[in-house]
Design brief:
binds flavin-adenine dinucleotide, 8 strands, TIM Barrel, 47% helix, single chain, disordered N terminus, alpha/beta
Length: 288
């Protein structure tokens, strides 16, 4: 298969969404209607997450295929490599190619809880950059994005080391970076400045997660390691007990974040949609 001629990673500006595959097979019908509703917003692309350790990889392919072929919107399939062997990754790429999905978000992934120290030490891919180098050689028809962390990856000793490692993803052949979620734009601006100073020239999508219930703070946000600025903490304190008011305030916060990013010249916005088309629509319309 030829490399995609109109590569979405070459676009000057993008507005994109992330979705996750349904947790149970029974939920596929509702997942497709969620995707239909997100598709109406015509994002530049939709990325599909991958279960930690490669569990349910086929579901990522199925959802990515629906986006690419049914909705006719470019799909990015996330692929994590920490628990995978080279042959498994190649087989997954063949499945994606069959579905005309040619964009991959290449990730190492978190170490699965049931992975022993021996298994972890013997893993075939150490880092996302190793996955990108391997696939550039073995599956050249794909284009790759990679993850970056405005507040530093939790394992990295310092931002300096994390950026050196990020440069390796660029050198390995990544074409685009998508950031971890953040709530304080100043972290993102400072990160971009440091990344540029280190020679990272790739476009960087700003990852925005609308928080519509305080429960999300205890789960997704804690896992991401992103800090909560005072303005946002105040908002949760004020509206946290009122579901509808909290939802509105969370959407409003995301809209203000995106507007500020755009006013400051950020050209790539990636919304962690959490499979919520109504919330995503309100943000898209609010930003317009
Ligand atoms: P790496 O790039 O390997 O980085 C991990 C650590 O190793 C960092 O501290 C880094 O500084 C260091 N490092 C990197 N390269 C090197 C190198 N060459 N030599 C030495 N050290 C190095 N997880 C999922 O399970 N499924 C998903 O679908 C998913 N999607 C995500 C999407 C985005 C936008 C983001 C930001 C994260 C996503 N994650 C997902 C989470 C991700 O898997 C974890 O953050 C994971 O801990 C790191 O993955 P990585 O690809 O950044 O790893």
């Amino acid at each position: 298969m030829e490399a995609s001629k109109a590569d979405i990673f070459d676009r000057e500006s993008t507005f994109s969404f992330e979705v996750f595959p349904p947790k149970k097979d029974d939920d596929f019908a509702s997942a497709f209607s969620t995707l239909d509703a997100l598709g109406e917003l015509r994002p530049d692309y939709i990325s599909v997450t991958y279960g930690a350790g490669g569990s349910r990889a086929g579901k990522t392919v199925e959802i990515a295929s629906y986006i690419q072929n049914h909705l006719q919107i470019p799909a990015i399939a996330h692929v994590t490599c920490v628990g995978s062997r080279r042959e498994q990754i190649l087989s997954l790429c063949r499945d994606l190619e069959k579905e005309h999905v040619t964009h991959i978000m290449a990730l190492r992934g978190d170490r699965p809880k049931d992975m022993t120290d021996e298994e972890f030490a013997a893993r075939e891919f150490e880092h996302a950059s190793d996955l990108i180098s391997f696939l550039k050689a073995q599956a050249p028809s794909f284009s790759f994005a990679a993850a970056c962390y405005p507040e530093k990856h939790f394992e990295a000793f310092s931002m300096e080391t994390d950026l050196k490692n990020l440069l390796k993803k660029q050198e390995a052949g990544a074409k685009h970076l998508i950031s971890q979620l953040f709530f304080d734009n100043d972290y993102f601006y400072a990160f971009c400045e440091k990344a540029r100073a280190k020679g990272i020239t790739l476009p960087i999508s700003a990852g925005i997660m609308p928080i519509t219930s305080p429960k999300q703070i205890g789960t997704t946000v804690t896992l991401s390691g992103s800090s909560i600025p005072k303005a946002f903490a105040d908002l949760i304190a004020r509206y946290g007990d009122n579901a509808e008011e909290m939802r509105k305030a969370g959407i409003d916060y995301a809209i203000r974040q995106i507007r500020d990013l755009q006013e400051n010249g950020v050209k790539h916005i990636h919304i962690y949609s959490m499979n919520k088309p109504k919330t995503t629509r309100e943000i898209v319309e609010g930003v317009k």
